[in-house]
User: Fold Ni/Fe hydrogenase from Arcobacter caeni.
Amino acid sequence: MTTKKPTVVWFTAISCNGNTHSLLSANSSRFELFLNSFDFIYHPSLTIDKSLEDILNQEEKIDFLLIEGSISSHRDFFTICDDSTFNHLNKLASKANYIIAVGSCASYGGIHSKFVQNDDICSINEAINKDILENLKHKIVNLTGCPVHPEWILQTLFTLKTFGEIALDEIGRPKELYSTLAHHGCTRNEYFEWKVEGNFGQKEGCLFYDQGCRGPMTHSSCNKILWNDISSKTRVGMPCIGCTEIDFPRNDMLETKKNIGIPYEVPLGISKRAYLSMTGVAKTFRIDRLHKKLME
Assistant:
């Protein structure tokens, strides 16, 4: 007897499609396992057997509804198939057992919510009718990131498929993926400890003190679960921009805000007074080995 595979529907709302591109960069073996384990019945760019109208009109339940992009009730500017993303979302959500917000726009409203003025753009959690939320088998899962790591999408789907639930933090992110910081696993941590600053694009040096790196205060596992299994932003000289946090995007993201030469925000888990004391001690030492590597 063949077991019916759980269905997956991917709805793209107001989005740059960055999370779709991220999904396509997943490890090929893992992606093949996903396709063999789930029935991926609809994606606006990747599937051809069913249209969005077919999904909206079907009576069958959707096991996993994944939403990419933020939501608006406007029909004049953000229309798909002659209706608003808000209406489409609620029709799809009413059929779903599990809902996953893919990326920061779907999770919190993201870039569109911040920069598009005089509109009602919001996250899917804010847009879905409350009676629909009460009938879901699980709270909405927020997979934040701009874009989200492809492995986080697949890992969340397999966890929910296997166990029916996943532990979430206070803002709806899976704890197993967002309980650590981007700083953990960063190859530049020794430079951070000794306050040796590097520059954008350099292979060596910390990017926290001048370049705006948010690694020490960003909940993310992207330095543990590497992109393409080999790398991350900080490993190639790009400061972490904190794209998994609810305040993303911030102004002047590639600049460290300071007060009298001291970073305005200090790493999570330490008081400002203690941090200043540690910084003072570290700056009294010069680690020639680190400075030499920085100059190479």
Remarks:
- The radius of gyration is 21 Å.
